[in-house]
Design a protein that fits this description.
- The structure is a homodimer.
- Chain A is α/β, with parallel strands linked by helices.
- Chain A has 2 domains: about 5-140 and about 305-360 and about 395-405, Rossmann fold (3-Layer(aba) Sandwich); about 155-305, 3-Layer(aba) Sandwich (Rossmann fold), CATH 3.40.50.460.
- Helix content of chain A is about 35%, strand content about 20%.
- Chain A is built from 13 helices and 13 strands.
- The first copy, chain A, has helices at about 15-30, 40-45, 60-70, 90-100, 115-130, 155-175, 195-200, 225-235, 255-260, 275-290, 300-305, 310-330, 380-385; strands at about 5-10, 35-40, 50-55, 105-110, 135-140, 180-190, 215, 240-245, 290-295, 335-345, 345-355, 400, 400-405.
- In chain A, the strands form 3 sheets. Chain A has a 7-stranded mixed β-sheet with strand order 3-2-1-4-5-10-11, sandwiched between helices. A 4-stranded parallel β-sheet of chain A has the order 7-8-6-9, sandwiched between helices.
- In chain A, α1 runs antiparallel to α3 and α1 (about 15-30) packs across α12 (about 310-330).
- The longest helix of chain A is centred in the middle third of the chain and has 19 residues, at about 155-175.
- The first copy, chain A, starts with a strand and ends in a 10-residue tail after the last strand.
- At the A-B interface, α6, α10, β9, α11 and β12 of A face α6, α10, β9, α11 and β12 of B.
- Chains A, B: One of its GO terms (molecular function) is 6-phosphofructokinase activity.
Chain lengths: ~425, ~425
């Protein structure tokens, strides 16, 4: 490379997104990039000329290792959708003038669907205007809902955390016996795609029966059938554990979390504060069956738990970052790096690049065949798909009993 | 030892309670106990003659290691308070007839306050009736609220999990910038004692500022002052993280979690379903300030996260189990093993036995001096007290990417 590289992070945090950043940095350095800039808070920050020189923050190999183990977007993230080029050319002029000023040869953006839309639009604009900067996307999302890639970095670590925590909750559930039994309802992220919720099945093994029911958002949810299944399970066991996606909906399209809506929770601005899906179902089941219930939300814990990251995930995230720089250096633009599964057992994967126009704004859902007929559990195919992605650990660098992260860039408030 | 030993677990699960069980088993075996029984679901299960022969379940050293890494009460637990001896002698006659049948020489009970009440009453009954069985308690509770012991096994691992997860949440909070800022409110267990909530301060280090505010249940909570403090913090930073105990109360004695009460959440049996403290405060702050808020409850995750247990905690739990058997073998009864801190730096501890009459039904709270004057953070003394207890890790035995636990006793449903 002869010029400079700029890299940004966008969308929701994950435990692996910084490993991709480390991969971008390392490969750009190895390929001779003069400067490697990091946008603070993605494209939105860049427009305000908020960026850092990464070499001032990753000063040695230990820093790079710490970065791989640091959760959430090191550079800060944003949720900003670029306007259509024909609607607002000024935004593009501004961005490209900053890129020119920084002499950017390669622009790498680590993110999900919306971020790939950014890559698409910027590379389109570069083509139209004959601008030499190359734009390559690097996939990232715990939701695993990106098209064309076998899976997305970030998903494996979140899945591992979910499998581990669900298993611990199942053990916890058997401790105390309640007269009418105990039902634990675990709410998992993924509003439209059930990849994360299905990962609850990873708790199953020789030493654990796994959760009793798993409900993905891809299929309509039936409250009465749910209640009957739980009742039937409680006649056989003292503790029932259910994993549900935050996005499960009734047949009529209403989100389950909307049913728990209560007047007290409308705030001063008139915003509805939705109570959680698990909270509603726990209350519903307590009312229907009279058993003890509890609601557990993994919330942000599942996307930021770098202390239990998957080694496969962190390594692949790193590779994908490097592959994005390589692709840009070799002349690719308007592309996203994807992961291709080469073999299941032993698991092997490699990277390719695909046209970002075929990826952006498309959502990959769990196939119907990977859920059982009743819609209450994922199949073995699902589990076989996920299992390789959670293998191996990344031992945190422990300092004084707590995992150490890389210092936050000082320019962040 | 010439006779048999029986051991039970009682009260809430922890990540370390099974390490105490492993310690009881090993020491009883080493000291020549013929049989080592485990009560299923504590004293309540014993009254129904539900017990197992532990040697059938811990068959080798690997089993013992797995047991130390298995969260929640391996034998199952109960929350059963024995009646006063003069009120219901029959219960005692029944228990002692079962002990006689099993030829029990030593009765070890691993638990918290209520469990120590059980040891007290059973040992009193034995004295009154001249019965030879000896009763010794083994402390256990994540709440760390037992008197006379420096700390309780289970607390260190929960504190380590809380410190680690709070740190990950803080990183997560800085990723996305919201127009009016983001306030994350984390709810931690401990209805009356703030030991666990205070552990949120462990997130603080060279690479992390720690949470911004910490509210313990020992001090009254003022909603308006809280709102003002958050508002002031939001003028300086984009993300504010607050740790609150589930048990914080207003000056008038009402729990904060009761304020969020809504009609929709009264179930069919007329039970009030309380929304959480964090959920209420998140809604309150959103209404007051108009910022983005989120509520995160650690719920059962904090007490069962054996995947991030503290080595000091797991080792001490094991030692305490062994010390309980030793004490009983040497003739002690009506005693509880306590941990004595011998030195802070380097940290060293040992065990002693104390009269259980001085422990049962007494609750150790965080001293006022260990909270700052404003009541919004714990002091360095608090942090110095906790820090040694979270040191070191217990690497989980990973099988197929997920921590392995010891098989559940088959007699449990």
């Amino acid at each position: 490379m002869k010029g400079n590289v700029i890299v940004g992070q966008s969308g929701g945090p994950t435990a692996a997104i910084n490993s991709s950043l480390a991969g971008v940095y390392r490969t750009a350095k190895d390929r001779g990039a003069k400067k490697i800039y990091g946008m603070l808070h993605g494209i939105q920050g860049l427009m305000d000329e908020r960026y850092i020189d990464l070499s001032e923050h990753i000063t040695n190999e230990l820093d790079a290792e710490l970065l791989k183990r640091t959760p959430a977007a090191y550079l800060g993230s944003c949720r900003y959708k670029l306007p259509e080029i024909h609607e607002n050319g000024e935004v593009y002029e501004k961005i490209f003038s900053i890129l020119d000023k920084l002499e950017i040869e390669a622009f790498i953006y680590i993110g999900g669907n919306d971020s790939m839309d950014t890559i698409k639009k910027l590379s389109d604009y570069a083509i139209v205007t004959g601008h030499p900067t190359r734009f390559v996307g690097c996939p990232k999302t715990i939701d695993n809902d990106l098209a064309l890639t076998d899976h997305t970095p970030g998903y494996g670590s979140a899945a591992k955390y979910i499998g581990t925590s669900v298993k611990e909750i199942i053990r916890d559930g058997f401790c105390l016996e309640y007269p009418h039994g105990l039902v634990s309802i675990i709410e998992v992220m993924g509003r439209n795609a059930g990849w994360l919720t299905g990962a609850a099945a990873l708790a199953q093994g020789e030493d654990c029966t796994g959760p009793d029911l798993i409900y993905l958002p891809e299929l309509p949810f039936d409250l009465q059938k749910f209640s009957e299944r739980v009742k039937s399970l409680l006649s056989e066991k003292t503790s029932v554990v259910v994993a549900v996606s935050e996005g499960i909906k009734l047949d009529d399209g209403r989100y389950v979390c909307e049913l728990g809506q209560s007047v007290d929770f409308v705030d001063a601005f008139g915003h509805k504060q939705l109570s959680g899906t698990a909270a509603y179902l726990a209350s519903f089941i307590a009312g229907e069956i009279g058993c003890k219930t509890r609601a557990i939300e993994f919330s942000t814990l599942q996307r930021s738990a770098s202390h239990s990251a998957s080694r496969v995930d962190i390594l692949e995230a790193y590779q994908v970052g490097g592959a994005a720089v390589k692709a840009a250096d070799e002349g690719d633009s308007g592309k996203m790096v994807v992961i291709k599964r080469l073999s299941d057992d032993p698991y092997q994967s490699g990277t390719e690049v695909k046209d970002v126009h075929k990826i952006a704004n498309d959502e990959k859902l769990v196939p119907r065949e990977w859920v059982n007929i009743e819609g209450t559990y994922v199949t073995d195919e699902f589990v076989n798909y996920v299992k390789p992605l959670i293998q191996g650990d990344v031992s945190p660098v422990m300092v004084d009993g707590i995992p150490r992260h890389l210092y936050k860039p000082k320019t962040q408030k």
